[in-house]
Amino acid sequence: MRLWMAAMLTLSLLGGCEEKFKPPPKEDKPAKKARTESAPPKEEPKTQAKEEPPTPAEDPTTPEEIAKARNIAILDNRIDDALRLCGKEDLTKVDDQGVLGCVLTACRKKDSETASKWAGNLEGPLLKEARKVCASNGVGPL
Questions:
Q1: Is 75 helix (H, G, I), strand (E, B) or coil?
Q2: How confident is residue 102, by pLDDT bands cut at 50, 70 and 90?
Q3: Element (H, E) at 125
Q4: Pairwise CA distance, residues 75 & 54, whole Å
Q5: Alpha carbon distances (Å) from 67 to 111, 127, 142
């Protein structure tokens, strides 16, 4: 009974407040046709030619700079630059992952002689992985 009385009291109080809580009147919107006529024409998307990444004016000289440039070239799929930088390095002093990157890049270029020469610096699971990837690229046994 109390719930019913509370509901009736609430309804009677809200009934007198209708004027306060009315939403503002909606303004008339212009016709869609007028809106489309004033809109500027759509521009056609311009296709841009794929740009070559800029090559540095000077080749890196320190081993750290060479390693960084080599890794960037490998990740950017610039095979010729990566091979050139791998050739500048003393691969006996490079970490195993760097040597593996150079071997796999040579395999991508289908240069089996270079890949075999550099794979001599690998051993264990990295050598096994290099052999598997190079074989899938059609490069002879390492």
A1: helix
A2: very high
A3: helix 125-136
A4: 15
A5: 21, 20, 23
Q: Which two tokens stand for residue 111?
A: 């240069």
Q: Which two tokens stand for residue 34?
A: 């007028």
Q: pLDDT value at position 18?
A: 56
Look at residues 120, 121, 125 and name the one whose alpha carbon lies nearest to residue 141. 120
Tell me the H-state helices in 20-124.
32-38, 63-75, 79-88, 96-108, 112-119
Measured CA to CA, the distance from residue 49 to residue 52 in angstroms comes to 9
Distant-in-sequence contacts of 48-54, Cβ < 8 A, 24+ apart: 53/78
Of 107, 56, 60, the C-alpha closest to 83 is: 107
Q: Which residues contact 83 (CB under 8 A, 6 or more apart)?
A: 102, 105, 106, 109, 111, 114
